[in-house]
Fold this protein.
Amino acid sequence: MAYESVEQLTQTRFFMRRILCSLLAVVALAGFLIGCGTRGSVDTSKMEKSFQGAASQADVSTAVAAIKAADFAKAVPVLQKVIKVGGLTDEQKDAISTAIMGMQIVASQNPNKYSVEVYQSLSDLVAYLDGREPVRRPLP
């Protein structure tokens, strides 16, 4: 590409720098928003929907409230009760599993807020959901 003057070349470089800076700003903003949005929130909508009208809806509502309040230590025993009662549909199992995974992610991203015991209790829930007893290892 041939430029007719030094001024045209300078304008083109200035324009390209502005585009590059704008793109970098958009990417940085998107990364910041995505990073901040995932720390501390668990999607419980699947769980709420799948337990509508179920016998254990009250317990699930209690667990959902605790999850939304980021009080996983309070949600774990309630979810354990729901799982141990049994009779869960595949949709309900999937919804609980999704919520557990979300809680594990949040707990691992915020190690100062959640203890190892909470994280281990979440892993135990997965075992109960699979119909087996959890394997307990001594904490360090």
Q: What stands out?
A: The chain has a mean pLDDT of 82. The chain has six helices and no strands. The radius of gyration is 24 Å. Residues 1-38 form one domain.
